Amino acid sequence: MTVTLRINGSACRFHGDPMTPLVDVLRRERFLTGTKAVCREGFCGACTVEVDGEAVMSCLRPIGLLDGATVKSIEALAPGDTALHPLQAAFEAADVVQCGMCFPGMVMSLAPFLRENPDAGRNEIKAAMVGNICRCTGYERIVDAVMNFLDSQKMEQANG
Amino acid sequence: MFDSMERSLTVAGSIEEALAAKHRGAAVLAGGTWLMRDPRRGVNLPDVLVSLHALPALFTVEIEKDQVVIGASVTHAGLARQLAGLNGFDAVVAAANGAANPAIRRVATVGGNLCTFDFAAADLLPVFLAMNAVVELRSIGERQVLPIAEFLANRRVFLRDSILTSVILRRDVIASAHARLPLRRAGDYPVAIVSAVRGHDGRVRIAVGSVEDVARRWISLEAVLAIEPASVSADPERMRALAAQCVDFRGRDGIEADGWYRCQVLPTLVRRAIASLSAKESVQ
């Protein structure tokens, strides 16, 4: 089966097994290894990417359902030598990244959520990241970092 | 690339095309969140599939005066979003909003939840049972509408030649509640689920999911309730005690919980569901 889609702004064509998980196309075909294949069961969230603006588990998305879709992986948030996405920068500033395996998924889950919920509180943030498991840090510091990010976004807006 | 280069996926442009593919032996692919884990379970993926994702009619939720018609391809997230605030439908929203995790809820469909034979912990099944839902099945040249309990009792037979296209819920409920016990919040399967609905006739209907292989109504508890004063069904503690006397489930053993434990927690889930139901009724 041939599937045409956009990945991080580039038109891509895939030819092969329609049930190939998107995560394998990203990592093996496009070498976008920021998306992590960990549990492959939709439990850990490490493979989260945006498909048509929504955060989904790429391990559970067969490529055959994505003809015409727009996919954004973690690499598109801060391509090349550009500055980190503010959410990534907030994680780095709060020193919450340890092994780093879960963080691309964390960022890809939270970025669209925060875009749509700029006034989210701690409980909403926790609910949004309930599908992203971290085995290093504990979650409170991650939520702290997200709150810092939201505060800085609001300050930026207030200052015009 | 990987796996089977010969595997074929038909993206159906009409329900007739989907039915024709199914008739030729294709497996129906909905959101794929269960099927994509087949390799992890040691099961080979089907070689021939047909997808329903290009059929817009299956993605709609029609809220009519007397009923709600839910297309089979509506996702859990879409269902929760579209029914939010609809009087009496809180349990449906809670079930759709509580299943798995946010990313899966954006993809997993109503039809997939109802048609996956091996998925005992499906959240929508008990709530649809308690709501007295009916399902619409399409086969070549035929449309069939039947109660969900009848469908669930014989899913393998019904789905041999048919595709589930919609779920229909009557708007004849006063209030509903959904109580589930997960081991943790992060997207695992619930140990047990209790859905409770009070109909306009004042009767409470209760259904249980994840305890046995297939969700079912708790008929013995409902029968006891039918001969008790109406006030009993609004008293969470008395309902918990009644439920404890009526546990007639054979709990399934699983890696996340033993069967006896699933049965053991049911009275407490009934209490929680009834407390939630009573709170909603008092607000109304």
UniProtKB/TrEMBL annotation, chain A:
> Domain 2Fe-2S ferredoxin-type: where?
1-77
Q: Does the keyword Amino-acid biosynthesis apply?
A: no
Q: Which UniProt keywords apply?
A: 2Fe-2S, Iron, Iron-sulfur, Metal-binding, Oxidoreductase
Instruction: Mention one GO molecular function.
Output: oxidoreductase activity
Matching Pfam families, A to Z? Fer2, Fer2_2
The protein here is known as (2Fe-2S)-binding protein
Source organism per entry reads Neorhizobium lilium
UniProtKB/TrEMBL annotation, chain B:
List the PROSITE patterns hit by this protein, alphabetically. Answer: FAD_PCMH (PS51387)
User: A GO molecular function for this record?
Assistant: oxidoreductase activity
- What positions belong to coiled-coil segments? none
Q: Which InterPro entries match?
A: CO_DH_flav_C, CO_DH_flav_C_dom_sf, Diverse_Substr_Oxidored, FAD-bd_PCMH, FAD-bd_PCMH-like_sf, FAD-bd_PCMH_sub1, FAD-bd_PCMH_sub2, Mopterin_DH_FAD-bd
Q: Which UniProt keywords apply?
A: FAD, Flavoprotein, Oxidoreductase
- Does DNA damage appear among the keywords? no
Q: Does the keyword Cell cycle apply?
A: no
Residue ranges annotated for the FAD-binding PCMH-type domain, each copy included: 2-174
* Protein's name according to its UniProt entry: Molybdopterin dehydrogenase
- Organism phylogeny: Bacteria, Pseudomonadati, Pseudomonadota, Alphaproteobacteria, Hyphomicrobiales
